[in-house]
Amino acid sequence: MADSLQAEIGVFGGSGFYSLIENAREHWIETPYGIASDKIALGEIEGKSVAFLPRHGKDHRFPPQSINYRANLYAMKSLGVKWIIGPTACGSLKESVRPGAMVVCDQLVDRTTGRKDTFYDGPITTHVSFADPYCPTLRPIATDVLRSLEIETHERGTVVVIQGPRFSTRSESQWFQSQGWEVINMTQYPEAYLARELEMCYVNISLITDYDVGLEGMPPVSHHEVIEVFQRNNDRVKAAIGKIVEDIPRDADCSCRHALAGARF
């Protein structure tokens, strides 16, 4: 790939977050798994090369169950990306995790079905550890940045990933809440896991847009309300990403980079 199509850091845009880099160069990236969700925007932030991709497409044409996650992650890897920042719009399962707050998740529970969630279908059997789904190098950086911007921040939390496109029933939401989980989302799996399979570091920043319906007295959420909250917080999200990019150590090693060591028979 030409030197101009290179990036150190990748960023996925979520619901309501479709642009990041000023004066970006946009390119379609073809992969063995198909085309990515949209053109990837390449440019610089704080002197570092960054690739930005809205995971749903700029016009939000791909609902969460239809995103080609493998193409999106493979495209980032093909550009040379080592670090990925994955902001998402999420619901809260706890009263203490308020709308407008941000959660730097440390755990994930997968409740999706039928998604293509691995690059390794054989012939070499590959079992990649996912005990700790999110990057131990990026998580503290993200937490420190969010707090430095005076954003209400939870430094850990479990995100339960549902299939979508529907939202949860009250009973489902109450069950998730009873497990002690903090955040509910539709896109973190298999995105975070595929990054691990490709030995890229991945951090999630969950922007809380609403309380899920399992919390007593909460009305049903609408997609319009989610987008409205995300748009009101776009400037804060972009400021945080810029500072995280600045603080990522270029030459740092990380356990994520060695995910395939010992994973193959």
What attributes characterize this protein structure?
Rossmann fold, 265 residues, 24% helix, 6 helices, eleven-stranded mixed sheet, globular
What features would you describe in this structure?
By secondary structure, the protein is of the alpha/beta class. It has a single domain, classed as Rossmann fold (3-Layer(aba) Sandwich), CATH 3.40.50. The chain is built from 6 helices and 13 strands. Strands 1, 2, 5, 6, 7, 8, 9, 10, 11, 12 and 13 form an 11-stranded mixed beta sheet that branches. It is globular and about 50 Å long. The chain starts with 8 loop residues before the first strand and ends in an 18-residue tail after the last helix.
Helices and strands, with pairings:
Elements: E1 9-13, E2 25-27, E3 30-31, E4 34-35, E5 40-45, E6 48-54, H1 69-78, E7 83-92, E8 102-103, E9 107-111, H2 138-148, E10 153-154, E11 158-162, H3 170-178, E12 183-185, H4 188-197, E13 201-211, H5 223-232, H6 234-247
Parallel strand pairs: 1-6, 1-7, 7-13, 8-10, 9-11, 11-12
Antiparallel strand pairs: 2-5, 3-4, 5-6, 7-12, 8-13
Helix pairs in contact: 2-6
